[in-house]
Write a structure and sequence with these properties.
binds zinc ion, 3 strands, 8 helices, 7% strand, Arc Repressor Mutant, subunit A, globular, 48% helix, 178 residues, 3-stranded mixed sheet, mainly alpha
Length: 178
């Protein structure tokens, strides 16, 4: 099982109507399913010493904090943080991550994969790209077709993003902790 396969399976387990609303209005969709989603203006996506991070998720409190921006990047951040919550509830993903050499890095990548799969569903990708390689024109078509697709989505989350898990009980982040 590859990281991408796991990510797509997790996305596939989300009911299709929820997937649709997550794609169209992530903030509203997450709030509607009972998560506490709070903008924190002090957070910023600016890189460097002044910036904190784009988002944080707190699994046991079902809470997502995010840096509010006017850009569509915010949607990616929200879905990335939501992915953390999904992973924390997914035993297959947790055990896969625990087997990785860099579980923390792989976890962030998997959250990016999940957010990307939510923003650009496979059906859309298939319809626009077909089976061949993705070209620049495909990206433009995807961009025009999607309200939330953002050209900088691939930079959502990542290494400089904060992650506050449930504390010591994060086996995938601390595989060697005894
Ligand atoms: Zn993350």
């Amino acid at each position: 099982m590859t990281r991408m396969q796991l990510a797509h399976r997790i996305v596939g387990e989300i009911p299709s109507d929820l997937r649709r609303s997550l794609r169209r209005q992530p903030l509203k969709a997450l709030t509607d399913i009972g998560l506490h989603v709070q903008p924190v203006t002090q957070m910023t996506s600016a890189r460097g010493a002044g910036g904190m991070c784009d988002g944080m998720s707190f699994s046991d409190r079902r809470t997502i904090l995010f840096a509010p921006t006017q850009s569509r990047r915010q949607n990616f951040t929200l879905l990335h943080e939501y992915a953390h919550l999904l992973l924390d509830d997914n035993d297959d993903a947790l055990s896969w991550l625990a087997d990785q050499e860099q579980p923390g890095v792989e976890q962030e990548r998997m959250c990016d994969d999940i957010a990307a799969a939510l923003l650009v569903p496979d059906e859309d990708l298939d319809a626009i790209v077909g089976t061949g390689p993705i070209t620049g024109q495909h990206l433009i078509n995807l961009f025009q077709d999607s309200e939330v697709f953002s050209t900088d989505w691939s930079f959502g989350g990542g290494e400089d993003e904060c992650r506050f898990g449930d504390g010591a009980d994060s086996p995938r982040a601390q595989p060697d902790a005894a």
